[in-house]
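Show me any protein, fold above all:
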Amino acid sequence: MNSPLTIVVMGVAGTGKTTIGPLVAERLGVPYAEGDDFHPQANVAKMSAGIPLDDDDRWPWLDAIGAWAHGRAGLGGVVSSSALKRSYRDRLRAAAPGLVFLHLTGDRALIERRMAERKGHFMPTALLDSQFATLQPLGADETGVSVDVSGTPEDIAERAAAALRPLTT
């Protein structure tokens, strides 16, 4: 019998992690957790003020996501996290070794437009440049898939679920 995957939906701000994550989870029949909910209030305040997080800010957040993912081992689940650097993904994998990454990618102009259109989110478009500068795409030795974010959320989620299904262990 195949075990459900525990998946981290990753990518720069504005790629749709919060929109696509639940849709992928639904298609795979596993729960979804919003990565932003794992941020301490100090991180949210910093980002709301347009100040990028540094690694010291991110470690407790990544550890909280990793603990959630560890608890989903063998049960499956989807959680969002920018996971922009390899070192961040390594830290998540240290907590939950079977993690699979779904990297949402897209044209910068499309992502910026989507960020500008969303309401009530703490991440300003001014931080998009720092996100792209920090991004280290999945390495060939990392388990995961990349999916382009052009199209409707349903189209993206279908493509993502189809790409992830063969990775089920």
